[in-house]
Amino acid sequence: MLSLFAANFGLATKASRLLFNAAKPVVSGYHRVGLTASGVTRSFVTTPRVAFPAAAKKAAPKKTTKAAAPRKKAAKKKTAAKPKVKAKPKRKAAPKPKPKPKIVLKREMLPPSSPGGPYLQFAKEYHAKYPIKSLPEAAEAMKKCGAAWNALDKSEKEKYYEQYRKAFEEYAVKRAEYFATVDPEIIKEINRRKKAKGKSKIRPPPPPVEQRRPMTSYLQFYHDYRKEHSQGASDLKILAAEAGKAWRELPEAKKQVYKDQYMARLETWRAQYGKSAAASA
């Protein structure tokens, strides 16, 4: 039995080798010839897949679906037409104010400078005689000038006091003319720059004494009381307190005299300087 099985197995292997060699393409000249599937015979060794290739699968037919019927739109309910509202006219925006041009300050726009006091009048004359030639000599020259001023007596100094009074009168006239004609915007610009530097503002000169508003009835009483009692008073605060107490204890008839005098002075002042005072304020 074993010998028969071995003989059959040997024959089977030989047949499979022959089939394998037969399946190879045969080269004939310049053409390559291959065996087709029809030329292969089935044996007990070959499989059905090799002998008979599987048939191509047929594509499944596509399912066709009927288009759904369009839905009917619901009828819209008719609503009453709203009355048209007229649009309000748009308000025109207020025009933006134009920026003010920057003021460039020049020397002639500035107020006149105040004259120096009596000592400065003397110093001008002294340094004209003894000019300072170099910066290191300036400190020594100023010391000598101060010593020369202190060496003068009152009669010699009176000359320089008189020079100062004349210079100040001229300065007061120029200052009044300047504030009467200058543009207020220039004053604002000067004060803005002074404030930035921490300096005091410039202000227009006060009006003369005769143009000032008259004193009230109580201030006139205090002025009279101070003339009578200022000799024995050592402190102005005590004197003011005593004057206030005396005013409160004053009979009403005497108070009325001061009030009438004040009203008369006020009417006169309003008639003469009221308009100019209101304009300057």
Automatic annotation (TrEMBL):
SMART domains: HMG
InterPro entries with a match to the protein in the record: HMG_box_dom (IPR009071), HMG_box_dom_sf (IPR036910)
Sequence ranges of Basic residues compositional bias: 59-100, 192-202
SUPFAM superfamilies: HMG-box
Keywords from the named record: DNA-binding, Nucleus
GO cellular component terms, semicolon-separated: nucleus
Alphabetized GO MF terms: DNA binding
Keyword Metal-binding appears in the UniProt entry: no
Taxonomic superkingdom: Eukaryota
Listed name of the protein: HMG box domain-containing protein
Organism for this UniProt entry: Amanita thiersii Skay4041
